[in-house]
């Protein structure tokens, strides 16, 4: 992905969460599901109303994050979420989702498991 500025923000618009990124985070859950996402996932959800896939929402809300790590996408079974293109589904997420996802993203960053990326 490399350095990226949100293409959905207009005229320097900024929201609650940063609209620039140069990294990705992988979260692994007790369900066995793993997801790789851009740092800007919170921006997309909160500031643009993007609704992630239900399985991801369920894991964040109800699951236990077992780890975050640096993983290669190819052949890993990871699900890619939050790499928005053109049009995307908008709406609202369950109460507490954004707060829990923010905690998971911060924990991943603090543990050194935020990966600077060149492309996925």
Helix-and-strand structural type:
alpha+beta
Number of DSSP helical runs: 3
User: Beta-strand level of the residues, as a percent range?
Assistant: 15-25%
The whole-angstrom Rg is 14 Å
Compute the separation of the termini in Å: 6 Å
- Low-pLDDT windows of residues: none
Major sheet characteristics: 5 strands, mixed
- Principal-axes geometry comes out as globular
- H/E element string? EEEEHHEEHE
Count all strands and give the number: 7
Q: What's the overall average pLDDT, rounded?
A: 80
List keywords for this structure.
alpha+beta; single chain; 120 residues
Précis, in short:
The protein is α+β, with helices and mostly antiparallel strands and 120 residues long. 26% of the residues lie in helices and 22% in strands.
Please explain how this structure is put together.
The chain is an alpha+beta fold and 120 residues long. It has one domain (4-116). The protein is 26% helix and 22% strand. The protein has helices at 41-48, 54-62, 97-110, and strands spanning 4-5, 20-21, 23-29, 34-38, 65-69, 79-80, 114-116. Strands 3, 4, 5, 6 and 7 form a five-stranded mixed β-sheet that branches. β3 and β4 form a beta hairpin. The longest helix is centred in the last third of the chain and has 14 residues, at 97-110. The chain is globular, with a radius of gyration of 14 Å. The N and C termini lie close together (6 Å). The model has no long low-confidence stretch (mean pLDDT 80).
């Amino acid at each position: 992905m490399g350095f990226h500025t949100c293409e959905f923000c207009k005229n320097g618009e900024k929201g609650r969460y940063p609209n620039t990124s140069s990294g990705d985070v992988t979260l692994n859950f007790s369900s066995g599901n793993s997801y790789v996402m851009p740092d800007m996932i919170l921006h997309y959800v909160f500031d643009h109303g993007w609704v992630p896939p239900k399985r991801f929402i369920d894991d964040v809300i109800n699951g236990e994050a077992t780890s975050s790590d640096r993983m290669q996408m190819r052949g890993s079974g990871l699900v890619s979420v939050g790499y928005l293109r053109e049009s995307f589904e908008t709406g609202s997420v369950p109460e507490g989702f954004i707060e829990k996802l923010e905690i998971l993203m911060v924990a991943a960053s603090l543990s050194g498991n935020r990966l600077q990326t060149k492309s996925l």
